[in-house]
Amino acid sequence: MRSPLHKSGDAFGNDRTPLKTIRHLGSSKSGTEHFIQQRITGFANAILVIVLAVVAIMLSGRSYADAVSLVGSPWVAVPLALAIVSVAVHMKLGIQVVIEDYVHAEGARILLLLLNTFFAVAIAATAIFAIVKIMLAVLTGGSVGTGA
């Protein structure tokens, strides 16, 4: 296997290293890893959606205080947080594939990939913050305000 810094040289004396080699965007260097990550998060989402459906059914018809108490339970908060992380990673990977396949301008592709990552992290962080806030309020006996 050749080093990425190996100068190949062509008939025209071009000794530049291909940019795709330096960025590790070669033919099959990351496609398999990406494929496996997508399948693992998809499988995790399938299991966690069942948990979320059970929680949603348990929340139906409850008062606000009872709903906060249920979501604040570690037995519910932890699977909710895991679902949020799994869904956010799965979303980021899926949108990344669309951007890489259909955005051909290099600058726009890089910008959109960065925005995609920031969006996924922002969504996950905000949702996890809300769950932790509810859980800590329940565990300490405080109340969770509605923000009004």
TrEMBL record:
InterPro entries: SQR/QFR_C/D, Succ_DH_anchor, SuccDH_FuR_B_TM-su. It is found in: Membrane. Its cofactor is heme. GO terms for cellular component: membrane. Keywords: Electron transport, Heme, Iron, Membrane, Metal-binding, Transmembrane, Transmembrane helix, Transport, Tricarboxylic acid cycle. Its main location: membrane. One of its GO terms (molecular function) is metal ion binding. It is a multi-pass membrane protein. Membrane-anchoring subunit of succinate dehydrogenase (SDH). Part of an enzyme complex containing four subunits: a flavoprotein, an iron-sulfur protein, plus two membrane-anchoring proteins, SdhC and SdhD. This is Succinate dehydrogenase hydrophobic membrane anchor subunit. The gene is sdhD.
